[in-house]
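Render this sequence as a predicted structure.
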Amino acid sequence: MVRDNDCVFCRIISGELDSATVYDDESTVAFMNLRQSNEGHVLVVPRNHVEQIYDLDEDTASALASTVCKVARAIRQVYKPDGLSIWQSNGPAAFQEVPHVHWHVFPRYTDDGLLVVYPRDLAGRARREYSLQSLKDISGPLQDALKVNEG
């Protein structure tokens, strides 16, 4: 097991720190977030210490996706939210607070005012719409990078 002794999530996974764990298997652990803006906010983490999504291997990424889906279905059953947000952040610019890759699985309710993905106005900047051709133009380098990374 890869562990970082300074990582709060590694300390939770090892049992050094207590948590309200809702699910665990050989690859993942899911536990309640300490900050419950909406009741039922769960974090899903890999057992191995991996700082960001870029460093995940395929097996761990698959295991995380499976656990996120299981937790999402349980949240829907228990809390009966109007919707669900799932998010994952990498690095300071994305406000990643704990350097251990994790997914937030967050029940949502109409007009709860939380986590607005496309704010109407962000610091005076209006949301920019792209034409289909512009999207095709900017997708080319991503397509190339994906082809290189496959082989």
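Summary. The longest helix spans residues 58-79. The radius of gyration is 18 Å.
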